[in-house]
Amino acid sequence: MRFSFPPAPVPTVPVVSGDMFPVRRIFCVGRNYADHAREMGSDPVREKPFFFTKPADAILENGSVMPYPPATENLHHEVELVVALGGGGRGIPVDRVDAEHVFGYAVGLDMTRRDLQAAAKAKGQPWDMAKGFDKSAPVSAILPVVQAQGMSRGRIALRVNGEVRQSGDIADMIWSVPELVHELSMLVELAPGDLIFTGTPAGVGPVARGDRLEATVAGLEPLIITIG
Ligand code: MN
User: How far apart are alpha carbons 213 and 160 in whole angstroms?
Assistant: First the structure.
């Protein structure tokens, strides 16, 4: 095969072992913590989870400066547990989701142009430009599931310039990791390299140029970025 021009490099996220995890797709789930659903004006009901995506090359390496993106005056942080898939399939039963599918876990930030999202919601338009902009998906190094032991509970938090803005527990997710993998696999055929951002607890808010964001999930490498 001869390409018309050199193909773009495969986006990657480091694994704590030193390997690189090749990213295929980025799926995100909306309103997966009741307190965040309420702060966004929704009722936290357990109806089917809904998903949106970011492009794989929206990944931003831990420790980076994230340039303040264009076309927004309301850039928000959303700290999230990220599930990295090492296996895939379609129609995966909830009770069959295991280490064959889940490669590991990381901390992510679902950075959001909230003003564009509000405008899209009001017009019934897609969220892509609110969620899937360049460098909108900072992710920490992936901890392989064999070292992560479950990850069904634990503190999730976000600090801006040292001040706690978001704090919750991943046990409070409305849809658990196995349930999310199952539900997504009923919509698309999942594959190794897929990442799932699992939603954010309450306390989302704006960031400004120069802010230092520290996103943490108990047991995982902290994710630290600075807004440029
Ligand atoms: Mn989110």
Answer: 5
Buried b (16+ CB within 10 A) or exposed e, 92-110: beeeebeeebbbbbbbbbb
**In this structure, are residues 221 and 143 in contact, taking their beta carbons and an 8 Å threshold?**
yes
Taking the centre of ligand 1 as the mean of its atom positions, its distance from the CA of residue 207, in whole angstroms, is 15
213 C-alpha vs ligand 1 centroid, how far in Å? Answer: 16
Nearest-5° Cα angle at 53, 220 to 8: 85
Structural domains in the chain plus CATH codes? 12-227 (3.90.850.10)
Distance in Å, CA 9 to ligand 1 centroid: 26
User: pLDDT of 81-123, one tens digit each?
Assistant: 999 999 999 999 999 998 899 999 999 999 999 999 999 999 9
